[in-house]
Amino acid sequence: MESVNFNVKNKLKDYIDLLIVLITIVISDDTILFGTNKNTQFIKIKYCIIILLFFYLILNYLIKKKKVNTNLFFITITLSILIMFTSLINNDFRFGYFYRCGILVIGMFLSLKIPLHRFAILYDKIMEVLAVFSLIGYFISISFSQILKYLPIIYNSANNAFYTLLLTNISVNHGGFHRNYGLFREPGVFQLYLIVALLFQMFIIHNPKLKTQIIYLIALLTTFSTTGYNAPHCQDNFSAFLS
């Protein structure tokens, strides 16, 4: 894994960027805790954090006086218009449509603050930790299931119960078939984040580490996701093609 230059001058900026990337992962709609949690207080907390992040990114943009890439701005506006057009056609003006437009705008300003290469490094650091935690939780669920009864339980919007270790969740009603959820709402969602991390390792990060890739691959295997199994082969073929 490539190191980020943590020096005294940039230390605060480095940690802020790391926190921002962590927030984009942890409080996303793809997680159980902040995405599909039956306890709506967590959803409200998510919205508050998103609003704070939005204003921080806007303020950072104004202070740094960075120029918005024309293509990026056009794509953001076009996608937002399409979302609102769908809302208009369906005569459906629920909060979700405006929320998605807001997320697109946040994404635009986030890309201005954190370049892709730097984002990939920070994302990789975070996902490696999350993958390790998920494997620990998965191992506990298989080998030391008696420990699980001491863990707090959360419920998703479909009323499915999960033991939680905050950074990873374990299905209560697994039916004898254990799958690795990580902190995400579905194993299939978790594998998507792992595949992105693998792509960053293979194509963006200059000094990828085999150890990190092995951790991602093991975590992928424990999701028992068909897409997760096939994706590494596609990545290898694509990498060979580029070579």
UniProtKB/TrEMBL annotation:
Source organism superkingdom: Bacteria
Keyword annotations from UniProtKB, A to Z: Membrane, Transmembrane, Transmembrane helix
Transmembrane segments: 15-36, 42-63, 70-89, 95-114, 126-148, 188-205, 214-231
Protein name (record): Uncharacterized protein
Species: Herbinix hemicellulosilytica
